[in-house]
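Pilot study result, target chain (520 residues):
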Amino acid sequence: MASGAAFFEQRDGAASAPPRSGFTRREPEKTLLHQVVRENLESFLAQVSAEDPDGPGLPSYVERELRRYLGCGIAARGFVRIVCGRCHEEMIVGFSCKGLGFCPSCLGRRMNDVAAHLVDRVLPFSPYRQWVLSLPFRLRLVLAKRPALLGKVRTVFMRTVRAWQRLQARRLGVPDAKTAAVCFTQRFGSRLDCNPHFHSLVPDAVFVENDLKRIELVRLPRPKPSDVQKLVERIARRAQALLRRELGEAPAPDALDRLRSASQQLSLPALPEPPEDRAATLCARCEGFSLQAGRHLHENDRDGLEALCRYCLRPPLAKDRLVRAADGRGELVLELKRAMADGRTTLRLTPLDLLRRLAGLVPPPRTHSIHYFGAFAAHAALRGRIVPYSPRARRRCRTEETCRDQLVLPWPKAAVTTRLDDAHGPGPLRKAPAPRPRELDWRSLLRRCFASEIYDCPCGGRRRVVAFVTDRVQAVDILAAIGLPTEPPPTARARAPPSQAKMFDPAPGAIAVDPVCPDA
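Predicted structure:
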């Protein structure tokens, strides 16, 4: 095999030099979150095992998620080679871990991809309202441990909203109305605590079939504060009845339950919340359940709809919110989105506390976070008449030129100009544009989210992917030739607890003794 430089670089120093386009390779090993996980993962796992020596310990999927994150974007574990055909400028991009727990990069890509899919290919032109249901503190740990039971509570929530919408439609003279909704399940709060709750996007309208067998859209009036209060009371009553039937004898808590409980105890408000005027925000509470319905979007606000979808799919942790404490004690400062009840806007955590919170947010395997209800459901009879059809055989974009033209204007101007004279009368249904098949490739997603054209070189040429380097020997040869690290960043060994570490600290002038092997 030829040398790494001859195999990889068409021009000496092309891959190691900074690209003239301004695009830089993602270096996750230099981020604070990666450093914290790398330096404390083994200590965290050892500490969790020591807390329950006779128990099963941390679930394997949680440990696997933490270890996979350490390899996300690391070029030494494999990369993609991109070359400009004119000036031979080259760059490498590391593979992602595709984690679903807390990885900001992978969850950020999934957030933007799914939001673009919903707006372009699923959600029709309609006014939308966001319904948010928060659960009582006493139920959060139980429902986080039992995803099936959490799904039943989600169904109670969506059926209650659906019944209220059908009632409003009957008052408008529409007896056979059909509803639809998309529900997002979030398992975290802004403080990285275990807080399962639901965000749902519900059309502020119902679907009806006219005499010509065509689907029409009937707008519903804005809910009143009394309606939201009645809905949350009904949800609380039905959910509690469900839990009384389903919950049997509580199982013994495991290591993951203790991690979630600790994060929740640290996140409890120190002071009672001040009284607020919730009538204007359409927010109501009942026995710990909280229902909000104040966020509304116009039918033509497709940019706002995509931003709201991204908010519902956001990762639990943004890298910019985590910084090191300035006092030099090694603690971390987590910037909160909003002030707590006692006025604090930041939360101080030790590295091990951060890992405890992140481990408690990893969802169990085969657990979905997006669910479709009503006419949006996969097997609904009305779905094919509301959601545009897209052949499953074409999973990727047809051509780069077609994607470029369609993604610049994802919804046609002609559809936006259609108006209705009656605010609550029936009107023609306008489907989603569906300008593309399901999946967005890397280039199209960058253009959609950041307006960055990765394949356009400043020299006027076109970049292209020329190789996927997955062989370890070949990757080491290439990285060594271009001057990049050939080994992943090392993971620190497990450290003893602080109380035990002091016992083995040698006195000044004494000979250090290994506590594991005294004869060494």
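One observation from the pilot: Residues 47 and 497 are 8 Å apart (CA to CA). A full batch analysis is planned for the follow-on phase.
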